[in-house]
Amino acid sequence: MKVVILAGGLGLRLSEHTDRCPKPMVPIGEHPMLWHIMQVYAAHEIEEFVIALGYKQEVIKDYFTKFTQRGSDLSIDLATGECEVHASRTPDWKVHLVDTGERTMTGGRLKRLRKWIGNETFMMTYGDGLADIDIYELLTFHRRHGKLATMTAVRPPARFGCLHLDGQSVVRFDEKPQADEGWINGGFFVLEPEVLEYISGDEVMWERVPLEKLAADGELMAYQHGGFWQPMDTLREQRKLEAMWKKGEAPWMMVKQY
């Protein structure tokens, strides 16, 4: 099964990084966000990816074209330029890098990938969110209900932390990971190829007319994920994910890791 990852947006709210690279390439520890997202799927043995490129696509292309060299021992003949790879420690992923336009909207990017998607069920997510989601369970849910689309519904991260007081003394501060009420679109979709017919062109946002029409037609179901989910829209959120990674407390990292 293929996973589409939308990785072409401008990422304006994270401009501290995205003036140099696309948001999915902003680092979390020693790896870009995109690598972390792919690990979520690879942990569930889904290892073919279609990356929808746009803004600063050359950064993503450069990362993957040099991926094997970075994770392997090499012998380089400087006279001929030949490079021999030894003891590769890279994953057995297949990655398709597709230019979907710098200004194309999310729905338009998906529509442009029609020939890469083919006629089979596929998965899709955004290049800026992580979760400890059970992909097997998500896929089982989708197949069981038989509709065209499954969206993962998540609890939004709480905006404010919680103070614990002893009288007027602050004794502890907790950052609540998730709000207690309400559900929002968390990405991690499972889709049938027929959903592409709900997208008219480049200017269409997937989150508006296509999803609204799928819902109105009774073809959109919500898989409720009550566990960890965290977007990376701001510098504060990037630093939060970075801190979790460095402490070894990254709930999105499951079985495999390369």
Question: How would you describe this protein?
Answer:
The protein is of the alpha/beta class. It has one domain: Spore Coat Polysaccharide Biosynthesis Protein SpsA, Chain A (Alpha-Beta Complex), CATH 3.90.550.10. It has nine helices and 16 strands. β2 (27-28) and β3 form a beta hairpin. 36% of the residues are buried. The model has no long low-confidence stretch (mean pLDDT 90).
Structural class: alpha/beta
| Average pLDDT number | 90
Order of helices and strands: EHEEHEHHEEEHHEEHEEEEEHEEH
Shape-level CATH architecture: Alpha-Beta Complex
Total beta-strand segments: 16
> What is the gyration radius calculated from CA atoms?
20 Å
- What proportion of the residues is helical, as a percent range? 25-40%
Q: Domains counted in the coordinates: how many?
A: 1
Shape, per Cα inertia axes: globular
Distance N to C terminus: 20 Å
Percent of residues in beta strands: 25-35%
CATH overall fold name: Spore Coat Polysaccharide Biosynthesis Protein SpsA, Chain A
> What is the CATH homologous superfamily assignment?
Spore Coat Polysaccharide Biosynthesis Protein SpsA, Chain A
Q: What about the largest sheet?
A: 8 strands, mixed
> pLDDT below 50 for ≥5 consecutive residues: which ranges?
none
Count of separate DSSP helical elements: 9
CATH uppermost class:
Alpha Beta
